[in-house]
Amino acid sequence: MKVSARNIFKGPISAIKTGIVNAEVAVSIGGNDSLVAVVTMESLNALELKTGKDVVALVKAPWVMLMSEGSDIRLSARNSLTGTVKSVEVGTVNAEVSISLPGGSEVASVVTKEAAAELGLRPGVPVTAVIKASNVILGVPA
Amino acid sequence: MKVSARNIFKGPISAIKTGIVNAEVAVSIGGNDSLVAVVTMESLNALELKTGKDVVALVKAPWVMLMSEGSDIRLSARNSLTGTVKSVEVGTVNAEVSISLPGGSEVASVVTKEAAAELGLRPGVPVTAVIKASNVILGVPA
Amino acid sequence: MKVSARNIFKGPISAIKTGIVNAEVAVSIGGNDSLVAVVTMESLNALELKTGKDVVALVKAPWVMLMSEGSDIRLSARNSLTGTVKSVEVGTVNAEVSISLPGGSEVASVVTKEAAAELGLRPGVPVTAVIKASNVILGVPA
């Protein structure tokens, strides 16, 4: 498998909460970080997802919102991964930002050039990557 | 809080419709416009969302679809904000479009350069920003 | 209607599965391909969606993930459309990729420049477009 998604996290499922239509699946991605995905019950069953099973969690870079100085706000998005900026590549409209997490993994985000400037994103700056659980795609070996 | 999301709407919650897993939250964003967000019941409770409470509604610019001459179609997306193009910044692949809403707020969208050309987007042109309710992140003071 | 979404599929609804809050709607988009959309029951009723009814299915290009050599993985995302790369336009940060499907339609995706290079995307290369059902917007004539 090769995917365009810049974020490919690997790890075991740490928890599953099932509903009628959807399920919430938490994946341990290293360090103390975990990523929650919302998938349909149909996918949960088709992929035979179970606690302890190793999965990949895929997130496209434009689906990652960045936040700094976030101590004064609480968000409805389920995933907040705090780390430091590793690199910023600036284009005409967009910028791609790489973030190092304490556990060793990295998060990639595409934001507007303007946003990167406003948040003062440059290597070493602390930043939080916010990801909606519904924007995480899970995969298992075929 | 500083966020990369180009769309930060502030206003009071005007209505909440609860389900078993998800809730729909309508936020008044000025003028006669409102924005509907779908959040989990868990987030609704954790953020103590109630009618009348002031919240911020965050939407990344690539999550905003633009439409013109839309009078002949009805969409499944819950949010349609009609205004006029304020500015267009064109890159190699993408273009960032700012739209002024009648109520005074602005909406930012990133579309392909090709799309901006096809829709004839330039300052003063009427355009509708379409946003799926599941792509709206709500925030409250910590 | 003119929309910024680069993916506009037209076809009849082939199946509807209803839940309490959401419904899954499958649309035949030509060839043997179909696209599944998740919409709220409210939208299903408001748009009077029924099997056989012609609809448009809209997907923004940044919502399309690309995958190659995908035979070793199964994903939670409901839609996988396999075709061949038709063209790649590369910017500073992003690249826009057009994919021809066997049934004659095309899929557009915006990925990072880096992803396009890693996947070796160039005209003629086989590739799969992965689209989450929750990222498909349905439309009907007004």
From TrEMBL, chains A, B, C:
InterPro entries: Mo/tungstate-bd_C_term_dom, Molybdate_resp_trans_reg, Mop_domain, Transp-assoc_OB_typ1. PROSITE patterns: MOP (PS51866). GO terms for biological process: molybdate ion transport. Keywords: Molybdenum. Signal peptide: none annotated. Pfam families: TOBE. Residues 2-68, 74-140 form the Mop domain. The keyword Phosphoprotein does not apply. It comes from the Bacteria. This is Transporter. It comes from Parazoarcus communis. The lineage of its organism: Bacteria, Pseudomonadati, Pseudomonadota, Betaproteobacteria, Rhodocyclales.
